[in-house]
Amino acid sequence: MTDxxxxxxxxxxxxxxxxxxxxxxxxxxxxxxxLGQRSDLFNIAIQAGAIxxxxxxxxxxxWQLARSVLHGDGGAVHGQPARDYFLxxxxxxxxxxxxxxxxxxxxxxxxETITPIAWALVLGGVWMVLAEWGxxxxxRVLGERGTITxxxxxxxxxxxxxxxxxxxxxxxxxxxxxxxxxGTTSRVAATEFAFLVGIPTMFAATAWELVALxxxxxxxxxxxxxxxxxxxxxxxxxxxAVKWLLHYIQSHRFTPFAVYRVAFGVALLLLxxxxx
Length: 276
Hints:
By secondary structure, the chain is mostly helical. The chain is built from 11 helices and 2 strands. The protein has one domain. It has a two-stranded antiparallel ribbon with strand order 1-2. The longest helix has 29 residues, at 114-142. The radius of gyration is 19 Å and the shape is globular. The model has no long low-confidence stretch (mean pLDDT 89).
C-alpha cells in the first residue's frame, strides 16, 4: 500500500469517527497497526480537518452568535437569546480549559493502548444505553426542551475533560449524553451545543499540541503530500458524517452507536493481545 493511500484511509477514519459517538482514538490506534504509525503533526492535521468541517456546517450559527456579541441582534437559539447561548458556550469552554490544564499538569491521563480504550468503549456503550433511557424518561415528563442551562454548560465542560483523560470515551458521546441527562431533552439541541463547544476546545488543544511540537523541532521531515491528502480526506468525510448524524438524530436514537461500541470493544479485548 502506498503512503498516500494509507494517509487517505487514516484521514477518512478520523473524519468518520471524530464526531460520531464511537471514539476516534480507538479506531485510529487499530488502523495504525496496519497502515503504519503517523507523526504527531499528521495526527494534529487530520484532527484540524475534522474541526474545520464542523465550522463549515455551523457557519451560519457561528455568525449568528458573533452578531449577538458584537451587535446584540443575534435572535434566539433553541428558544433562548443568542447572547445567553454564547455566554454558556464560553463558560463551558472555560471550565474545560481550566480543568484540562490542571489535569495536564497533574498527569491525569490513561495510556493510549488497546486494553483501556477497549474497556472505555464497552463501558461507554453501556452508559449510553442507560443514559438514553434516562433521558427519554425525562423527555416524557418534561417535554421537548432545547434550552441550555448553566448546569448543562458546566457539566459539558467537565465531560470534555473526562473524555480527554480516558481515551476511548468519545468526546461527543460524553458531552451529548451529559447534556441530555442534565435537562436538555432535545437530542438535536444537545448535539449542537456539544459540537459547538467542541470547536474552540479542539482548536485550542490542536494549537497547544502544535506549539509544543514546534518547540521540540517536530515539524522537520514531514511528508507534506500525505499530510495534505489526509487533511482534505478528514475534512470531507467529517462534513458528510456530521451532516448525516444531524439528520439521523432527528428521528432516531443513539442506541445503534452504543451497540457498535460494545461490540468493537469486546472484539478488541478478545483479538488484540493485552497491553497492545
